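Technical annex, item 7. During the second reporting period the consortium partners agreed on a shared format for inverse folding records so that results from different sites could be compared directly. Each record opens with the tokenized structure and is followed by the designed sequence. A conforming record, contributed by the partner at site C, is shown below for reference.
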């Protein structure tokens, strides 16, 4: 295979505040102009200041303006012109860098030149991200009446089959459910596919989608354009690249571990046995504000949600073991402020556009520094202020030190008065007993259906769930 051509653009800070592709593309970028110095030499300054300068047609530029996209982000500046030339693209960029528009705009422009059904397939590792990508395509393609279809597990296949029967232009899918339809939905074929996008490829391969992707690639036509986007270029991603791309050009946005200046980050060093107690104290401190609370496991997410509900907090869980309708319902209630506390696994750490979050609590520390950046990036968005507090127990000290090393700074400790906290001890102890009983009841209920809570063999249908 010919060598991969590389292009690289430096980015000041991959700001977690711009946590969704749609939000991040609203950031200002300086104009790219060739100016002349006094000595007559040419000076090239920064990036293009408009989508039109990248070659995007007027109707799509209008859609960008309607959505509030003021200027292209660095990954869009690099990827869009290459994609419009008909080249395969490898895009290395974090979630929040504006990459959805980086592949959506070229695909929609080519679709206008040659309208056809089943024009493009976008593969996503999670259901929520798939829905968000589909919404982005619908919004950007609103001026050209683009038809989209979202195929994800956890939902009835019949309405999805009916939607496929209407011959959509764009299909956004998780790998497992796409294969189900390719094998079982009569008349559905991707033989005429023109574009394939694999978004968050590193996450897909981490979730063991490799064999499913191999099957999908064998079904798709060899003559197509392929875009592969990933945060990292691991050996697995390189193997996928060799199997699916032809003479690609690599575009990357360099970034460093950093958080925005408007984010106030703290840690809370307390014994593990007092975590629930200090959690309830903090939530009382931030009463009335919207809070995302991250845990490490599905079991802990559900337990903490039961605990907080018994204490009168408006908490709602979000994790991969919920039905898809429950997951969408949880996000909807939190977005609409019907619930002010979202207790979740890392299913909500990357990619999702959740506006107006005041506080992020890392009840369990993430196992890697990148996930920490993504988590705290749920707040302090678009110039607003925000607070992030991480619980550190005697078991987490080394893990927390690694996060501080990645940030290249020491975080201050969040000050609390022990006497004030201990007043809540009796109520929290009672709530803990209630939560344990609710978890046992839930396990028994799940057990009657042959699948104990959080357990069981992964099927194709539930592979696209976050395990927490």
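Designed sequence (site C submission):
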């Amino acid at each position: 295979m010919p060598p991969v051509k590389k292009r690289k653009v430096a980015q000041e800070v991959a700001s977690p505040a711009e946590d969704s592709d749609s939000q991040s593309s609203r950031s200002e970028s300086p104009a790219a102009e060739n100016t002349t110095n006094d000595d007559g030499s040419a000076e090239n300054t920064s990036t293009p200041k408009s989508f039109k300068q990248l070659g995007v047609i007027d109707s799509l530029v209008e859609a960008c303006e309607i959505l509030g996209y003021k200027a292209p982000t660095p990954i869009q500046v690099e990827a869009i012109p290459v994609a419009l030339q008909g080249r395969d693209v490898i895009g290395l960029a974090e979630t929040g860098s504006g990459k959805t528009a980086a592949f959506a705009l070229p695909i929609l422009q080519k679709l206008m030149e040659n309208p056809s059904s089943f024009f493009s397939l976008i593969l996503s590792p999670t259901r929520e991200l798939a829905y968000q990508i589909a919404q982005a395509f619908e919004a950007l393609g609103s001026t050209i009446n683009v038809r989209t279809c979202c195929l994800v597990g956890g939902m009835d296949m019949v309405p999805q089959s009916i939607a496929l029967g209407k011959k959509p232009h764009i299909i956004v899918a998780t790998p497992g459910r796409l294969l189900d339809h390719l094998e079982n939905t009569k008349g559905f074929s991707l033989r005429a596919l023109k574009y394939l996008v694999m978004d968050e490829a590193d996450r897909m391969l981490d979730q063991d989608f490799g064999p499913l992707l191999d099957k999908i690639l064998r079904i798709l036509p060899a003559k197509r354009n392929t875009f592969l986007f990933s945060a990292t270029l691991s050996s697995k991603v390189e193997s996928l690249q060799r199997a699916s791309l032809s003479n690609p050009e690599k575009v990357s946005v360099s970034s460093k571990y950093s958080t925005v200046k408007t984010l106030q980050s703290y840690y809370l060093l307390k014994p593990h046995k007092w975590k629930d107690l200090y959690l309830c104290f903090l939530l009382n401190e931030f009463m009335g504000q919207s809070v995302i609370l991250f845990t490490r496991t599905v079991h802990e997410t559900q337990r903490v949600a039961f605990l907080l509900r018994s204490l009168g907090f408006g908490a709602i869980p979000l994790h991969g073991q919920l039905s898809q309708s429950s997951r969408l319902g949880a996000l909807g209630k939190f977005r609409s402020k019907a619930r002010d506390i979202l207790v979740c696994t890392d299913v909500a750490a990357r990619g999702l556009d959740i506006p107006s979050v005041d506080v992020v609590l890392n009840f369990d520390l993430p196992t890697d520094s990148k996930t920490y950046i993504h988590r705290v990036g749920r707040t302090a968005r678009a110039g607003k202020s925000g607070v992030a507090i991480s619980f550190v127990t005697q078991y987490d000290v080394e893990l927390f030190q690694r996060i501080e090393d990645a940030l290249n700074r020491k975080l201050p400790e969040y000050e609390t008065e022990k006497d004030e906290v201990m007043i809540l001890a009796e109520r929290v102890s009672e709530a803990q007993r209630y939560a344990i009983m609710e978890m046992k009841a839930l396990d028994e209920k799940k057990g009657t259906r042959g699948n104990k809570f959080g357990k069981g063999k992964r099927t194709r249908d539930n592979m696209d769930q976050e395990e927490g």
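Residues 7-45 have pLDDT under 50 and may be disordered. The radius of gyration is 23 Å. All partners now use this format for quarterly exchanges.
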